[in-house]
Amino acid sequence: MITAMSWFPRSTRATVVYWVARVVVLLPMLYFVFMAMASLACFSDSCRDPGHRISYALVATVVSLLLGWTPNAAVAVLQRAGTAPATTRVVAVLAAYTVLVWGVFTAFIVYFIKATGV
């Protein structure tokens, strides 16, 4: 069962997972923060529709905030009761977390490139 306290590290291994997950998610999170600021500043010729810019900035900000909380989710998964050895669980959680974050980020970038033609 996941409780409110299970989202925060309670052991050395959980602390290691937390900080490694922070490093893994740093670049995608900064990308979305930058895109939110860039869409508000609007450096292109199509700045006539402020609603579109604000909606994109809002989505990018929400995605960035959600990415910022995902290391806590990795810690919550690690701290669940399990039968596998602790080291195996740490490696499995970090590998799955890295594949998930960078897989979704790559899928977004590919979609963005195809949608905009950049």
What this model shows, in words?
It contains three helices and no strands. It starts with 11 loop residues before the first helix and ends with a helix. 76% of the residues lie in helices and 0% in strands. It has helices at residues 12-41, 50-78, 86-116. The protein has 118 residues and is mainly alpha-helical.
**Secondary structure: number of strands:** 0
What is the H-and-E element order? Answer: HHH
**What portion of residues belong to β-strands?**
under 5%
Query: Whole-Å distance between the termini?
Result: 45 Å
Rg over C-alpha atoms, rounded to the nearest angstrom: 18 Å
The helix/strand class is mainly alpha
Mean pLDDT comes to 84
Unreliable spans are none
Categorize the overall geometry.
elongated
Oligomer: single chain
> What's the helical proportion of residues?
over 70%
What count of helical segments does DSSP give? 3
